[in-house]
Design goal:
It is built from 9 helices and no strands. The chain has helices spanning 6-17, 22-37, 42-51, 54-61, 72-82, 88-99, 102-106, 108-117, 122-125.
Length: 135
């Protein structure tokens, strides 16, 4: 179980993304975590969900598996498609505002496992340097 409450996660994301309201931060969290949930699977998804506040964990755990693996840029584009009026730049801001707070919220070891399941390039979205070799 997470020691972080939903309201605390919302506040951390609100500050990270410089959102004007809690409702805006909540909306972004819901969209980004729902998108992420489809791309993480198995025990890693279960562990990630269990370390998040219950409401956030459900957003991750209840998603159907993605039908294809997305690059980080494609993931950002998929999030942009879910946000009215979003551009790739604003969607990248939203994605990074949420994902960059996760290492502190769930632990670096869980994020390491999540990143192993994703294409290279995602590390930057989690606020980390991407030290993998380009292929």
């Amino acid at each position: 179980m997470s020691s972080l409450r939903w309201s605390e996660l919302v506040e951390v994301v609100r500050q990270s993304g410089q959102y004007l309201s809690e409702s805006e931060a909540e909306r972004v969290i819901r969209i980004v975590l729902s998108a992420l949930g489809g791309h993480v699977h198995g025990d890693v998804r279960d562990e990630l969900a269990s370390r998040l506040p219950e409401e956030a964990g459900r957003l991750v755990a209840t998603q159907l598996p993605a039908t294809r693996r997305l690059t980080a840029a494609q993931f950002v584009d998929s999030v942009a498609a879910r946000i009215l009026g979003a551009t790739p730049a604003t969607a990248r801001w939203d994605v990074t505002s949420v994902l960059s707070v996760l290492p502190k919220a769930v632990g670096n070891e869980v994020i390491d496992q999540v990143l192993e399941q994703l294409s290279s390039g995602y590390a930057l979205l989690f606020g980390r340097a991407d030290l993998t070799l380009a292929t």
